[in-house]
């Protein structure tokens, strides 16, 4: 079975090309995909603000985040743990209070 879908060709034009599901930009196109911020910097230079949030969106985001920050300020922040680990010891302790434990592979 072959699955095909439209993908935007890298660059500034709005050209869509059919590709297979197992495609990689380097194999399907002669030019490479832009780096993480290349497209955003180009949009700034061109004056295209479509990928940037409007001030209303930013204000709404803070309406969601401010109460979380306030809660953390009075009740403490979530337990920290190393990236790639099974999580903080507090998670194990929380489950152990009910006689439970995490199921790990």
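Q: What amino acid sequence fits the structure above?
A:
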């Amino acid at each position: 079975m072959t699955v095909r879908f439209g993908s935007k060709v890298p660059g500034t034009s709005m050209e869509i090309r059919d590709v297979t599901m197992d495609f990689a930009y380097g194999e399907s196109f002669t030019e490479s995909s832009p780096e993480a911020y290349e497209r955003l910097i180009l949009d700034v230079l061109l004056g295209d603000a479509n990928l940037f949030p409007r001030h209303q969106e930013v204000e709404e985001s803070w309406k969601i985040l401010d109460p979380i920050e306030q809660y953390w300020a009075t009740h403490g922040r979530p337990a920290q743990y190393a990236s790639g680990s099974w999580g903080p010891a507090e998670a194990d302790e929380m489950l152990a209070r009910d006689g439970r434990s995490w199921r790990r592979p």
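Q: And what stands out in the fold?
A: The mean pLDDT is 88.
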